[in-house]
Amino acid sequence: MNHVFELEGVDYQLWLSRCQQGYRLHLGGEILVPLDFTHQGDGSGILTIADSNEPVRFAIDGDTIHLHIRGRTRVLRYRDPLLAHSLVKKDAGLLVARAPMPGVVVKTSVLPGDQISAGSALMVIESMKLESVIRAPQDGVVDRIHFSEGQSFKHGAVLVTIKEEGH
Fold first, then answer.
1. Within the chain, where are the H helices?
2. What is the pLDDT of residues 76-123, one digit of tens each?
3. Whole-number Å distance between alpha carbons of 27 and 33
4. Do 72 and 98 share a domain, yes or no?
5. Hey, which of 86, 93, 124, 150 would disulfide with 106, CB 3.0 to 4.6 Å?
6. Same domain for 10 and 70?
7. pLDDT of 19
8. How many CA atoms lie within 13 A of 24 on its CB side?
9. Is 86 helix (H, G, I), strand (E, B) or coil?
10. pLDDT for 126-159, tens place per residue?
11. Helix H segments across 12-101?
12. H or E element that contains 52
């Protein structure tokens, strides 16, 4: 499972893979430690990191997680991993949706000139037999679709260019 969290203005991309003890935490291509979490109900639980058990308290508000561990409270913001990787400001008034992985366009949901709302589907892509929806990060107008249905693309390729409203 691929996840992106923002902590104190810095994005951290992590990957969790199953193992006998629960999960292994991968950060920056490096396996850090096995970990597991036992939820105890009332906004608390036990986080097992390697062989150490840490009591935690947490509150979740949408994509924001308030986590109290080891005497400190931290605020984490969950970011959609596809959006975190694929949407980049190109220059004033333009956004580009980049391919988060190599693949093929399965379906294009918009045309150049279409008004779009934040969260609306731009296209469906497939990579390693997994379909993912590329969504608009904000309201705007589709400027250009860079790949047609059935065309393949490489990791990082620009899929869609969007003009911000008013530009």
1. 81-86
2. 888 766 555 555 554 556 788 888 778 899 999 999 999 998 888 899
3. 10
4. no
5. 124
6. yes
7. 77
8. 9
9. helix
10. 887 888 888 887 788 999 999 999 999 988 788 9
11. 81-86
12. strand 52-61
Question: Containing domain of residue 17, as a range?
Answer: 2-79
**In this structure, which amino acid lies at residue 10?**
V
Does 108 share its domain with 93? yes
Kindly state the tokens that stand for 133.
């929806």
Give the C-alpha separation, 124 to 110, whole Å.
11
Query: What end-to-end distance do the CA atoms of the chain give, in Å?
Result: 37
pLDDT of residue 29: 63
Q: How far is CA 123 from the centre of its chain?
A: 16
Last residue of a domain, one of 59, 79, 99: 79
Regarding whether 92 and 69 lie in a shared domain, the answer is no
Residue 149: which CATH number?
2.40.50.100
